[in-house]
Amino acid sequence: MNRILSKPLALFALVLLAACAPAIPEQPVLQFAPGYEAVDDGRFIVPGVKAGFVNEFTRRVVVEYTGPDAPGTIVVDPYARRLYYVTGPRRAYRYAVAVGRAGLAFSGTGVIQRKEEWPSWTPTANMVRTRPDLYYDYRAGLPGGLINPLGARALYLYRNGRDTYFRIHGTEEQSSIGRATSAGCIRLFNQDAMHLYDQIGIGTRVRVRSLAESLQQEGPFVDNADGYAVPADPAAAEALARANAERLEAGGTL
User: Fold this and answer.
1) Among 89, 98, 102, 118, which residue carries the largest CB count within 10 Å?
2) Residues 228, 178 contacting (CB under 8 angstroms)
3) Alpha helix (H) ranges present in the chain?
């Protein structure tokens, strides 16, 4: 004979059953992207890169490199917004960069003759004159630190012994990486700037691609809806990479 529980007893039974049920573990919210957590370098704690800013276009990866550059070379492609550090035959780290007007004003080769941790920064006289609202307060210079626009690390490109004023540096403006910016040279996530800085030495050769070189090596790039540089035709870009690789395999040049 079935027994019908009164409402109070039924509610009590449900509470007991709920108490005995296994707890469902909470899924952790991923605040910072793996590999881009906060870093304490002894001077400052570099904030982690928010997970939303690290994606297939901006994550540091090891890739097959089909360019003609020797191991130990930094290759900057301001049009594809990529920077390569060639580590071996047909192998390279690929970093995403943000590119400002100054980053598009230089092409060709040079060498790293200065590298700085937490570099100071001084706006040019022209910057102060044209945008005093932004730069006047910093006309005497800004010491290195978390709010400095050169970020945690900076590499200074020289040509024929003279400073080109072309900089590869970190930034705290995490949302800018992989996108075009109105000012500046070549920016990386601070974590990527630190990673690159630790691998290279004074005298490292740098090649900054021209638009023609970028098209030959990477194919045309366009901005997607989120402002990231992506191949205009992914299938054509893959075919171009295969053709470049086959040409290098056969001993040809690009």
Assistant:
1) 98
2) yes
3) 7-20, 101-104, 125-130, 132-135, 190-199, 211-217, 234-249
Residue type, position 125, single letter: A
Burial (CB count within 10 angstroms: exposed 0-12, middle 13-18, buried 19+), residue 100: middle
| The two structure tokens encoding residue 18 | 């709920």
Q: Which residues make Cβ contacts (< 8 Å) with residue 30, sequence separation at least 6?
A: 51
DSSP string, 75-143: EEETTTTEEEEEEETTEEEEEE-EE-HHHHS--EEEEEEEEEES--B---HHHHHH-HHHHGGGTT-B-
Rounded CA separation 126/202 (Å): 29
Contact 103, 179 (CB under 8 A): no
pLDDT in tens, 161-175: 999 999 999 999 999
In tens, the pLDDT along 28-77 reads 455 889 999 999 999 999 999 999 999 999 999 999 999 999 999 999 99
Which residues are known catalytic residues? 169, 185
As a whole number of angstroms, the distance between CA 62 and CA 84 comes to 9
